[in-house]
Amino acid sequence: MKKRLLTALLSGALILTALAGCGQGAENQSGANDASAGGESGARDELIFVNYRDIRDLNPHLYAGEMYAQSILYDTLVSNTREGYVGCLAEDWTISEDGRTYTFNIRDGVTFSDGTPCDANAILANFNAILENRERHTWLEMMNLLVGVSAPDDDTFVIEMSEPYYPMLTELACIRPFAMISPNCMIDGSTKDGVNGYIGTGPYVLTDFVTDEYAVFERNEHYWGEAPAIQKITVKVIPDNQTRIMALENGEIDLIFGKNMLDADAISQYVDSEKFTVGLSDPTSTRHIVLNTTHDILGDKAVRQALQHATNRQAISEGIFYGLEPAADTLYAATVPYCDVGLEPYAYDMDEAARLLDEAGWTVGSDGIRVKDGQKLALDLLYNSDSVTEKTISEYLQSEYLKLGISLNIHGEEEQSYRDNMKAGNFDMVFNICWGMPYDPQSSLAAMRAPVYGDYAAQQGLEDKAEIDQAITDILTSTNEAERQELYTFVLTRLHEDAVYIPLTFETNKALYTSDLKGVHFGTDQYDVDFASMYFA
Questions:
Q1: Which tens digit of pLDDT belongs to each residue from 321-340?
Q2: What is the side-by-side order of every strand in the sheet holding 156-161?
Protein backbone atom coordinates (compact mmCIF):
# COMPACT_ATOMS: atom_id res chain seq x y z
CA MET A 1 0.00 0.00 0.00
CA LYS A 2 2.78 2.44 0.93
CA LYS A 3 4.73 1.89 -2.28
CA ARG A 4 1.52 2.07 -4.36
CA LEU A 5 0.63 5.36 -2.71
CA LEU A 6 3.98 6.97 -3.43
CA THR A 7 4.05 5.64 -6.99
CA ALA A 8 0.58 7.03 -7.64
CA LEU A 9 1.59 10.42 -6.35
CA LEU A 10 4.80 10.52 -8.32
CA SER A 11 3.30 9.34 -11.60
CA GLY A 12 -0.13 10.93 -11.57
CA ALA A 13 0.71 14.60 -12.14
CA LEU A 14 -0.07 15.24 -8.50
CA ILE A 15 3.22 16.86 -7.63
CA LEU A 16 2.34 20.51 -7.99
CA THR A 17 5.07 22.79 -9.28
CA ALA A 18 5.94 26.29 -8.12
CA LEU A 19 4.36 28.99 -10.22
CA ALA A 20 4.06 31.82 -7.74
CA GLY A 21 5.15 35.35 -8.52
CA CYS A 22 4.19 38.44 -6.57
CA GLY A 23 0.84 37.65 -5.01
CA GLN A 24 -0.24 35.66 -8.06
CA GLY A 25 1.06 32.69 -10.01
CA ALA A 26 1.55 32.16 -13.71
CA GLU A 27 -1.50 29.91 -13.71
CA ASN A 28 -3.58 32.88 -12.65
CA GLN A 29 -3.13 34.45 -16.06
CA SER A 30 -5.46 31.93 -17.69
CA GLY A 31 -7.16 30.64 -14.57
CA ALA A 32 -8.68 33.97 -13.59
CA ASN A 33 -10.07 34.45 -17.07
CA ASP A 34 -11.55 30.95 -17.06
CA ALA A 35 -13.08 31.59 -13.66
CA SER A 36 -14.51 34.92 -14.73
CA ALA A 37 -16.17 33.26 -17.69
CA GLY A 38 -17.38 30.52 -15.42
CA GLY A 39 -18.66 33.09 -12.97
CA GLU A 40 -21.35 34.07 -15.46
CA SER A 41 -22.59 30.49 -15.38
CA GLY A 42 -22.48 30.23 -11.62
CA ALA A 43 -18.86 29.29 -10.80
CA ARG A 44 -18.14 29.81 -7.10
CA ASP A 45 -16.03 32.76 -6.04
CA GLU A 46 -15.75 31.96 -2.30
CA LEU A 47 -13.11 29.57 -0.97
CA ILE A 48 -13.35 27.93 2.45
CA PHE A 49 -9.87 27.27 3.80
CA VAL A 50 -8.85 25.72 7.12
CA ASN A 51 -5.98 26.17 9.55
CA TYR A 52 -5.12 24.52 12.83
CA ARG A 53 -4.88 27.83 14.69
CA ASP A 54 -5.92 31.47 14.61
CA ILE A 55 -4.34 34.07 12.28
CA ARG A 56 -2.75 35.74 15.33
CA ASP A 57 -0.76 38.99 15.04
CA LEU A 58 -0.35 39.82 11.32
CA ASN A 59 2.27 42.53 11.82
CA PRO A 60 4.63 41.58 8.95
CA HIS A 61 7.69 42.93 10.75
CA LEU A 62 7.33 40.43 13.60
CA TYR A 63 6.97 36.66 13.65
CA ALA A 64 3.77 35.70 15.46
CA GLY A 65 1.24 35.73 12.61
CA GLU A 66 0.25 33.07 10.11
CA MET A 67 2.36 33.49 6.99
CA TYR A 68 -0.34 32.37 4.55
CA ALA A 69 -2.40 35.36 5.76
CA GLN A 70 0.48 37.80 5.68
CA SER A 71 1.39 36.74 2.14
CA ILE A 72 -2.04 37.71 0.74
CA LEU A 73 -2.26 41.01 2.63
CA TYR A 74 1.22 42.33 1.92
CA ASP A 75 3.81 42.56 -0.85
CA THR A 76 7.60 42.68 -0.87
CA LEU A 77 10.02 44.55 -3.13
CA VAL A 78 10.78 41.44 -5.19
CA SER A 79 9.47 37.88 -5.49
CA ASN A 80 11.45 34.65 -5.64
CA THR A 81 10.12 32.18 -8.21
CA ARG A 82 11.33 28.98 -9.87
CA GLU A 83 12.21 31.13 -12.87
CA GLY A 84 14.25 33.51 -10.72
CA TYR A 85 13.63 36.89 -9.12
CA VAL A 86 10.82 39.03 -10.49
CA GLY A 87 9.67 42.52 -9.66
CA CYS A 88 6.89 43.10 -7.17
CA LEU A 89 6.61 46.52 -5.51
CA ALA A 90 9.90 47.22 -7.22
CA GLU A 91 9.40 47.07 -10.97
CA ASP A 92 13.10 46.51 -11.56
CA TRP A 93 16.47 47.13 -9.89
CA THR A 94 20.19 47.53 -10.47
CA ILE A 95 23.14 46.26 -8.45
CA SER A 96 26.37 48.23 -8.31
CA GLU A 97 29.52 46.68 -9.78
CA ASP A 98 30.97 46.04 -6.32
CA GLY A 99 27.72 44.30 -5.23
CA ARG A 100 27.15 46.67 -2.30
CA THR A 101 24.42 49.03 -3.54
CA TYR A 102 20.94 47.98 -4.66
CA THR A 103 18.78 50.59 -6.38
CA PHE A 104 15.09 49.76 -6.80
CA ASN A 105 12.70 51.44 -9.22
CA ILE A 106 9.38 51.46 -7.34
CA ARG A 107 6.29 50.51 -9.33
CA ASP A 108 4.07 53.48 -10.23
CA GLY A 109 0.48 53.83 -9.06
CA VAL A 110 0.46 51.24 -6.27
CA THR A 111 -1.57 52.15 -3.20
CA PHE A 112 -2.18 50.44 0.10
CA SER A 113 -5.75 49.28 0.55
CA ASP A 114 -6.39 52.39 2.71
CA GLY A 115 -5.50 54.61 -0.26
CA THR A 116 -2.02 55.61 0.92
CA PRO A 117 0.53 55.68 -1.92
CA CYS A 118 3.09 52.89 -1.78
CA ASP A 119 5.99 54.94 -3.09
CA ALA A 120 9.68 54.97 -2.14
CA ASN A 121 8.90 57.06 0.95
CA ALA A 122 6.47 54.41 2.23
CA ILE A 123 9.08 51.72 1.53
CA LEU A 124 11.64 53.76 3.46
CA ALA A 125 9.25 54.14 6.41
CA ASN A 126 8.87 50.35 6.50
CA PHE A 127 12.62 49.72 6.40
CA ASN A 128 13.22 52.29 9.12
CA ALA A 129 10.65 50.49 11.27
CA ILE A 130 12.31 47.14 10.56
CA LEU A 131 15.78 48.50 11.35
CA GLU A 132 14.56 50.00 14.60
CA ASN A 133 14.20 46.37 15.70
CA ARG A 134 17.32 45.18 13.87
CA GLU A 135 18.51 42.75 16.57
CA ARG A 136 15.29 40.76 16.20
CA HIS A 137 16.10 40.13 12.55
CA THR A 138 19.81 39.29 12.65
CA TRP A 139 19.02 35.66 11.84
CA LEU A 140 19.09 37.11 8.32
CA GLU A 141 22.72 37.89 7.54
CA MET A 142 21.80 40.93 5.44
CA MET A 143 20.78 42.71 8.64
CA ASN A 144 24.37 42.43 9.88
CA LEU A 145 25.76 43.88 6.64
CA LEU A 146 23.18 46.59 5.94
CA VAL A 147 24.69 50.07 6.21
CA GLY A 148 21.82 52.33 5.24
CA VAL A 149 18.59 52.86 3.30
CA SER A 150 17.34 55.95 1.48
CA ALA A 151 14.68 57.27 -0.88
CA PRO A 152 16.33 59.87 -3.18
CA ASP A 153 12.93 60.50 -4.78
CA ASP A 154 9.39 59.11 -4.81
CA ASP A 155 10.29 56.42 -7.31
CA THR A 156 13.70 55.25 -6.05
CA PHE A 157 14.70 53.20 -3.03
CA VAL A 158 18.34 52.40 -2.23
CA ILE A 159 19.94 49.83 0.09
CA GLU A 160 23.65 50.07 0.87
CA MET A 161 25.66 47.13 2.25
CA SER A 162 29.09 46.95 3.88
CA GLU A 163 29.91 43.84 1.81
CA PRO A 164 28.44 42.18 -1.25
CA TYR A 165 25.81 39.65 -0.21
CA TYR A 166 24.55 37.17 -2.78
CA PRO A 167 21.32 36.03 -0.94
CA MET A 168 20.14 39.65 -0.74
CA LEU A 169 17.19 39.30 -3.12
CA THR A 170 16.17 35.96 -1.60
CA GLU A 171 15.87 37.56 1.82
CA LEU A 172 14.11 40.68 0.51
CA ALA A 173 11.50 38.34 -0.98
CA CYS A 174 10.71 36.88 2.46
CA ILE A 175 7.25 37.99 3.54
CA ARG A 176 8.58 38.76 6.98
CA PRO A 177 10.15 40.95 7.99
CA PHE A 178 10.33 42.61 4.55
CA ALA A 179 6.65 42.96 3.61
CA MET A 180 5.31 46.49 3.37
CA ILE A 181 2.51 47.73 5.66
CA SER A 182 0.73 51.07 5.37
CA PRO A 183 2.57 53.75 7.36
CA ASN A 184 -0.86 54.67 8.79
CA CYS A 185 -0.78 51.35 10.69
CA MET A 186 2.50 52.18 12.41
CA ILE A 187 2.49 53.53 15.93
CA ASP A 188 4.61 56.71 15.94
CA GLY A 189 6.46 55.37 12.90
CA SER A 190 7.26 52.10 14.61
CA THR A 191 6.12 48.49 14.32
CA LYS A 192 8.36 46.74 16.86
CA ASP A 193 5.76 47.07 19.63
CA GLY A 194 2.73 46.43 17.43
CA VAL A 195 0.56 48.01 14.75
CA ASN A 196 -2.98 49.40 14.72
CA GLY A 197 -4.12 47.67 11.53
CA TYR A 198 -3.19 45.14 8.88
CA ILE A 199 -3.23 47.22 5.69
CA GLY A 200 -1.08 46.13 2.76
CA THR A 201 -0.94 46.24 -1.04
CA GLY A 202 -1.69 42.52 -1.58
CA PRO A 203 -4.56 40.87 -3.46
CA TYR A 204 -6.77 40.54 -0.36
CA VAL A 205 -7.85 42.55 2.67
CA LEU A 206 -8.87 41.25 6.09
CA THR A 207 -12.53 42.14 6.68
CA ASP A 208 -13.55 40.07 9.70
CA PHE A 209 -12.18 37.61 12.24
CA VAL A 210 -13.16 35.99 15.51
CA THR A 211 -10.26 34.68 17.56
CA ASP A 212 -9.90 30.89 17.41
CA GLU A 213 -12.98 30.61 15.17
CA TYR A 214 -12.56 32.16 11.71
CA ALA A 215 -11.09 34.94 9.58
CA VAL A 216 -12.48 36.46 6.38
CA PHE A 217 -10.40 37.94 3.55
CA GLU A 218 -11.99 39.70 0.58
CA ARG A 219 -10.53 40.69 -2.73
CA ASN A 220 -8.67 44.00 -2.70
CA GLU A 221 -10.51 45.94 -5.38
CA HIS A 222 -7.59 48.39 -5.56
CA TYR A 223 -4.97 45.69 -6.07
CA TRP A 224 -2.32 46.77 -8.57
CA GLY A 225 -1.98 43.30 -10.13
CA GLU A 226 -4.45 41.05 -11.90
CA ALA A 227 -7.62 40.57 -9.87
CA PRO A 228 -7.87 37.11 -8.26
CA ALA A 229 -10.76 34.90 -9.35
CA ILE A 230 -11.59 34.04 -5.73
CA GLN A 231 -13.44 37.01 -4.28
CA LYS A 232 -13.74 35.83 -0.67
CA ILE A 233 -11.65 33.50 1.48
CA THR A 234 -13.07 32.28 4.77
CA VAL A 235 -10.56 30.53 7.02
CA LYS A 236 -11.98 28.21 9.66
CA VAL A 237 -9.94 27.22 12.71
CA ILE A 238 -10.02 23.43 13.22
CA PRO A 239 -7.14 22.15 15.40
CA ASP A 240 -7.79 18.42 14.99
CA ASN A 241 -6.56 16.56 11.89
CA GLN A 242 -9.46 14.13 11.70
CA THR A 243 -12.06 16.85 12.22
CA ARG A 244 -10.53 18.76 9.28
CA ILE A 245 -10.85 15.69 7.08
CA MET A 246 -14.50 15.25 8.10
CA ALA A 247 -15.17 18.92 7.32
CA LEU A 248 -13.73 18.42 3.83
CA GLU A 249 -15.79 15.29 3.30
CA ASN A 250 -18.94 17.12 4.39
CA GLY A 251 -18.31 20.05 2.03
CA GLU A 252 -17.71 22.51 4.88
CA ILE A 253 -14.23 23.38 3.58
CA ASP A 254 -12.56 23.26 0.15
CA LEU A 255 -8.83 23.07 0.83
CA ILE A 256 -6.39 21.64 3.38
CA PHE A 257 -2.84 22.84 2.73
CA GLY A 258 0.45 22.51 4.63
CA LYS A 259 3.08 19.99 5.61
CA ASN A 260 1.71 19.60 9.14
CA MET A 261 -1.97 19.77 8.24
CA LEU A 262 -2.28 16.25 6.83
CA ASP A 263 -0.86 12.93 7.94
CA ALA A 264 0.07 10.08 5.64
CA ASP A 265 -2.89 7.94 6.73
CA ALA A 266 -5.32 10.66 5.69
CA ILE A 267 -3.71 11.25 2.30
CA SER A 268 -3.64 7.53 1.51
CA GLN A 269 -7.44 7.46 1.54
CA TYR A 270 -7.76 9.93 -1.33
CA VAL A 271 -5.11 8.98 -3.88
CA ASP A 272 -7.67 7.39 -6.23
CA SER A 273 -10.51 9.77 -5.39
CA GLU A 274 -12.36 11.64 -8.13
CA LYS A 275 -14.04 13.98 -5.66
CA PHE A 276 -10.79 15.15 -4.06
CA THR A 277 -7.28 15.85 -5.34
CA VAL A 278 -3.99 15.19 -3.52
CA GLY A 279 -0.91 17.37 -4.03
CA LEU A 280 2.66 16.65 -2.92
CA SER A 281 5.58 19.06 -3.31
CA ASP A 282 9.27 18.56 -3.85
CA PRO A 283 11.27 18.38 -0.57
CA THR A 284 10.86 21.56 1.46
CA SER A 285 13.11 20.82 4.45
CA THR A 286 14.95 17.97 6.16
CA ARG A 287 13.92 16.19 9.34
CA HIS A 288 17.11 15.22 11.15
CA ILE A 289 18.85 14.52 14.44
CA VAL A 290 21.68 16.77 15.64
CA LEU A 291 24.60 15.11 17.45
CA ASN A 292 26.41 17.14 20.11
CA THR A 293 30.12 16.82 19.36
CA THR A 294 31.06 18.26 22.77
CA HIS A 295 29.55 15.19 24.46
CA ASP A 296 32.20 12.84 25.84
CA ILE A 297 30.90 9.90 23.75
CA LEU A 298 29.64 11.73 20.67
CA GLY A 299 32.91 13.64 20.44
CA ASP A 300 34.24 10.46 18.81
CA LYS A 301 33.52 10.64 15.08
CA ALA A 302 33.50 6.84 14.86
CA VAL A 303 30.48 6.73 17.20
CA ARG A 304 28.69 9.40 15.16
CA GLN A 305 29.39 7.50 11.95
CA ALA A 306 28.18 4.25 13.53
CA LEU A 307 24.88 5.93 14.40
CA GLN A 308 24.57 7.05 10.77
CA HIS A 309 24.94 3.47 9.53
CA ALA A 310 22.57 2.15 12.24
CA THR A 311 19.71 4.45 11.14
CA ASN A 312 17.30 2.88 8.65
CA ARG A 313 15.97 5.98 6.94
CA GLN A 314 13.98 4.00 4.38
CA ALA A 315 12.14 2.12 7.11
CA ILE A 316 11.26 5.44 8.79
CA SER A 317 10.08 6.90 5.48
CA GLU A 318 7.87 3.97 4.55
CA GLY A 319 6.79 2.81 8.01
CA ILE A 320 5.86 6.20 9.46
CA PHE A 321 5.27 8.47 6.45
CA TYR A 322 3.99 6.01 3.81
CA GLY A 323 6.84 7.26 1.62
CA LEU A 324 5.34 10.76 1.51
CA GLU A 325 8.48 12.00 3.24
CA PRO A 326 11.28 10.41 1.18
CA ALA A 327 14.31 8.99 2.98
CA ALA A 328 17.01 11.64 3.37
CA ASP A 329 20.67 10.79 2.80
CA THR A 330 22.02 14.32 3.22
CA LEU A 331 21.37 17.42 5.30
CA TYR A 332 19.83 19.19 2.30
CA ALA A 333 18.03 17.69 -0.67
CA ALA A 334 19.86 17.75 -3.99
CA THR A 335 17.06 19.98 -5.33
CA VAL A 336 18.11 22.77 -2.92
CA PRO A 337 20.34 25.36 -4.67
CA TYR A 338 24.08 24.56 -4.43
CA CYS A 339 23.43 21.27 -2.58
CA ASP A 340 23.76 18.70 -5.35
CA VAL A 341 27.43 18.04 -4.53
CA GLY A 342 27.71 14.26 -4.90
CA LEU A 343 28.01 13.24 -1.26
CA GLU A 344 28.21 9.51 -0.59
CA PRO A 345 25.29 8.51 1.67
CA TYR A 346 25.80 6.57 4.89
CA ALA A 347 24.21 3.27 3.87
CA TYR A 348 22.08 1.43 6.41
CA ASP A 349 24.54 -1.26 7.49
CA MET A 350 24.44 -2.65 11.04
CA ASP A 351 27.58 -4.73 10.41
CA GLU A 352 29.52 -1.62 9.42
CA ALA A 353 28.15 0.22 12.47
CA ALA A 354 29.29 -2.63 14.72
CA ARG A 355 32.73 -2.69 13.08
CA LEU A 356 33.21 1.05 13.68
CA LEU A 357 32.28 0.71 17.35
CA ASP A 358 34.50 -2.35 17.80
CA GLU A 359 37.47 -0.55 16.31
CA ALA A 360 36.77 2.49 18.51
CA GLY A 361 37.06 0.25 21.59
CA TRP A 362 33.37 -0.11 22.44
CA THR A 363 32.86 -3.76 23.35
CA VAL A 364 29.57 -5.48 24.18
CA GLY A 365 29.15 -6.05 27.92
CA SER A 366 27.36 -8.89 29.72
CA ASP A 367 24.13 -6.89 29.72
CA GLY A 368 24.29 -6.34 25.96
CA ILE A 369 25.30 -2.66 26.25
CA ARG A 370 28.67 -1.62 24.89
CA VAL A 371 31.27 -0.29 27.28
CA LYS A 372 34.64 1.44 27.02
CA ASP A 373 36.98 2.24 29.91
CA GLY A 374 34.16 1.48 32.33
CA GLN A 375 31.70 3.86 30.60
CA LYS A 376 28.51 2.51 29.05
CA LEU A 377 27.51 3.58 25.57
CA ALA A 378 24.39 5.39 26.79
CA LEU A 379 22.95 8.42 25.01
CA ASP A 380 19.94 10.70 25.48
CA LEU A 381 17.61 11.75 22.65
CA LEU A 382 15.51 14.89 23.18
CA TYR A 383 12.30 15.42 21.20
CA ASN A 384 9.40 17.85 21.12
CA SER A 385 6.64 16.21 23.18
CA ASP A 386 4.05 18.02 21.04
CA SER A 387 5.17 15.91 18.07
CA VAL A 388 3.69 12.42 17.94
CA THR A 389 5.93 11.72 14.96
CA GLU A 390 9.14 12.51 16.83
CA LYS A 391 8.06 10.28 19.72
CA THR A 392 7.35 7.43 17.31
CA ILE A 393 10.72 7.78 15.58
CA SER A 394 12.45 7.98 18.96
CA GLU A 395 10.90 4.72 20.11
CA TYR A 396 11.89 3.03 16.85
CA LEU A 397 15.51 4.22 17.10
CA GLN A 398 15.67 3.19 20.74
CA SER A 399 14.79 -0.35 19.72
CA GLU A 400 17.13 -0.38 16.71
CA TYR A 401 20.17 1.05 18.48
CA LEU A 402 19.75 -1.43 21.33
CA LYS A 403 20.43 -4.24 18.83
CA LEU A 404 23.84 -2.65 18.34
CA GLY A 405 24.53 -2.36 22.06
CA ILE A 406 23.63 1.32 22.39
CA SER A 407 21.37 2.39 25.25
CA LEU A 408 19.19 5.26 24.05
CA ASN A 409 17.17 7.14 26.65
CA ILE A 410 14.39 9.13 25.00
CA HIS A 411 12.51 11.98 26.60
CA GLY A 412 10.17 14.68 25.34
CA GLU A 413 9.73 18.24 26.56
CA GLU A 414 7.10 20.79 25.67
CA GLU A 415 8.05 22.93 22.71
CA GLN A 416 9.51 25.99 24.44
CA SER A 417 11.59 23.95 26.87
CA TYR A 418 12.73 21.70 24.04
CA ARG A 419 13.84 24.71 21.98
CA ASP A 420 15.54 26.40 24.94
CA ASN A 421 17.57 23.28 25.71
CA MET A 422 18.46 22.81 22.06
CA LYS A 423 19.69 26.40 21.73
CA ALA A 424 21.70 26.11 24.97
CA GLY A 425 23.30 22.84 23.87
CA ASN A 426 21.71 20.86 26.69
CA PHE A 427 21.39 17.64 24.72
CA ASP A 428 23.28 14.59 23.49
CA MET A 429 21.03 14.09 20.47
CA VAL A 430 18.08 16.26 19.50
CA PHE A 431 15.47 16.38 16.74
CA ASN A 432 15.50 19.36 14.45
CA ILE A 433 14.26 20.41 11.01
CA CYS A 434 16.21 22.46 8.48
CA TRP A 435 14.87 25.95 7.95
CA GLY A 436 13.55 24.91 4.55
CA MET A 437 12.89 26.84 1.38
CA PRO A 438 13.62 29.65 0.74
CA TYR A 439 16.03 29.89 3.70
CA ASP A 440 18.16 26.85 2.79
CA PRO A 441 21.02 26.61 2.47
CA GLN A 442 22.24 30.18 2.91
CA SER A 443 20.34 31.36 6.02
CA SER A 444 20.42 28.07 7.93
CA LEU A 445 24.17 27.70 7.32
CA ALA A 446 24.80 31.33 8.30
CA ALA A 447 23.01 30.73 11.60
CA MET A 448 25.37 27.87 12.44
CA ARG A 449 28.03 30.47 13.26
CA ALA A 450 26.11 31.81 16.26
CA PRO A 451 23.93 30.31 19.05
CA VAL A 452 20.66 30.72 17.13
CA TYR A 453 19.59 27.06 17.37
CA GLY A 454 21.35 23.88 18.43
CA ASP A 455 23.77 23.74 15.49
CA TYR A 456 26.30 26.12 17.01
CA ALA A 457 26.56 24.23 20.28
CA ALA A 458 26.58 20.85 18.56
CA GLN A 459 29.50 21.79 16.31
CA GLN A 460 31.78 23.15 19.04
CA GLY A 461 33.62 19.82 19.34
CA LEU A 462 34.65 19.80 15.68
CA GLU A 463 38.32 20.39 15.00
CA ASP A 464 37.42 22.16 11.75
CA LYS A 465 34.62 24.35 13.20
CA ALA A 466 36.51 27.62 12.61
CA GLU A 467 37.34 26.61 9.06
CA ILE A 468 33.71 25.72 8.34
CA ASP A 469 32.48 29.03 9.78
CA GLN A 470 34.96 31.02 7.70
CA ALA A 471 33.89 29.23 4.55
CA ILE A 472 30.23 30.05 5.31
CA THR A 473 31.14 33.72 5.76
CA ASP A 474 33.03 33.66 2.46
CA ILE A 475 30.02 32.07 0.73
CA LEU A 476 27.73 34.89 1.73
CA THR A 477 29.98 37.66 0.43
CA SER A 478 31.29 35.91 -2.68
CA THR A 479 30.44 37.55 -6.00
CA ASN A 480 31.83 34.64 -8.05
CA GLU A 481 29.34 31.87 -8.76
CA ALA A 482 31.97 29.16 -9.30
CA GLU A 483 33.80 30.11 -6.12
CA ARG A 484 30.54 30.13 -4.20
CA GLN A 485 29.68 26.61 -5.37
CA GLU A 486 33.17 25.41 -4.43
CA LEU A 487 32.75 26.83 -0.93
CA TYR A 488 29.31 25.26 -0.54
CA THR A 489 30.74 21.91 -1.62
CA PHE A 490 33.49 22.26 0.99
CA VAL A 491 31.09 23.11 3.84
CA LEU A 492 28.50 20.46 3.00
CA THR A 493 31.19 17.81 2.57
CA ARG A 494 32.81 18.66 5.90
CA LEU A 495 29.53 18.55 7.80
CA HIS A 496 28.62 15.27 6.11
CA GLU A 497 31.95 13.59 6.80
CA ASP A 498 32.00 14.93 10.36
CA ALA A 499 28.64 13.14 10.77
CA VAL A 500 27.12 15.91 12.89
CA TYR A 501 23.64 15.38 11.46
CA ILE A 502 21.62 12.20 10.99
CA PRO A 503 19.22 13.03 8.11
CA LEU A 504 15.95 11.11 8.41
CA THR A 505 13.40 12.23 5.84
CA PHE A 506 12.73 15.13 3.50
CA GLU A 507 9.57 16.96 4.54
CA THR A 508 7.12 17.74 1.76
CA ASN A 509 4.27 20.18 1.51
CA LYS A 510 0.86 18.56 1.11
CA ALA A 511 -2.56 19.59 -0.16
CA LEU A 512 -5.95 17.90 -0.23
CA TYR A 513 -8.84 19.72 -1.87
CA THR A 514 -12.10 19.42 -3.71
CA SER A 515 -11.40 18.56 -7.34
CA ASP A 516 -13.37 21.48 -8.77
CA LEU A 517 -10.82 23.85 -7.21
CA LYS A 518 -8.13 24.62 -9.78
CA GLY A 519 -4.81 26.47 -9.75
CA VAL A 520 -3.55 24.95 -6.50
CA HIS A 521 0.25 24.75 -6.47
CA PHE A 522 3.29 25.01 -4.23
CA GLY A 523 5.55 28.05 -4.35
CA THR A 524 9.22 28.57 -3.56
CA ASP A 525 8.27 29.54 0.00
CA GLN A 526 6.97 26.53 1.91
CA TYR A 527 4.64 28.72 4.00
CA ASP A 528 2.92 30.52 1.14
CA VAL A 529 -0.54 29.55 -0.10
CA ASP A 530 -1.14 31.23 -3.46
CA PHE A 531 -4.88 31.84 -3.24
CA ALA A 532 -4.63 34.45 -5.99
CA SER A 533 -3.98 31.70 -8.55
CA MET A 534 -6.95 29.55 -7.52
CA TYR A 535 -10.38 29.37 -9.11
CA PHE A 536 -13.36 27.05 -9.26
CA ALA A 537 -14.17 25.21 -12.48
A1: 988 899 999 999 999 999 99
A2: 90-95, 101-106, 156-161, 146-153
